[in-house]
Amino acid sequence: MPHVIIEHSANITGTMDLDGLIARLHAAALETGVFPLGGLRTRAAERTRYRIADGHPDNGFVHVTLRMGHGRDPATKRAAAEHVFAALCDHLEPLFRTSPLGISLEVQEIDPDLSFKHNNLHDIVARRRQGAAETE
User: Fold this and answer.
1) Is the pLDDT of residue 113 over 80?
2) Which one of 17, 49, 88, 122 has the lowest number of neighbouring Cβ atoms within 10 Å?
């Protein structure tokens, strides 16, 4: 049940390709081989109230929280995080070159005793993929 949660300052909304960033990080998470397609959720939230560094209105941020299920060893978690972070930084490079910008990523492990799920996506995605393979 990986979640890629992108938070960003409102002042950069018009200067970055947010839909492209969502697609890029979703793909990067899948590329790690660590996360199942049916469990992956990638979303973004614009933050309109914030203060960054010296408070200058040009200062922006993009923070990604990568939440993943319990049980992966530290090396696997780190490799997955590094891969997603590299995609994040690469996507934001044009903005980073021209604007004051803080980019960060944090991994959070989901406590299995406190995580509740009701999900039919794994089966539906598998059936869709099977159907697509049969039509080829």
Assistant:
1) no
2) 49
